[in-house]
Here is the input.
Amino acid sequence: MYDLGINDDTYNNLASRAIGILGRESSYGKQHGEIENGVKSLSKILGLGNTSPDIYRKYKGYFGYTPARNDNNSIGLTQMRLSELTDNELSLMKKYNITKDDLVYNPEKAAVATMIHLSQLYKDSGLNLDRAT
Here is the structure.
């Protein structure tokens, strides 16, 4: 909480949101078979549909195309775009040894990265999540 610059009530409110994001944005880490990933990958490349291979295949790449390696593309369990993170967020991720690979393959570190990002958004927006609604 100290590193995030938020109090315990805010942390608890953000944590409940982080859990939902971590699961939903990655379809709960669902992994497709190679055939399904191949079809979705080809559809994505050809612009035939609004679908993608699973987060693991997207990160590894398909047919020589590696979209998740680009910092402008969403990545991993949280679907964060590294290019949109502030210097403070990147610094905290470095402090906690969170890498691109962790955002895909390490749910615990992906959850910490989500909390880092949510706390920054919270501070930037001036939302008051501590007040009962």
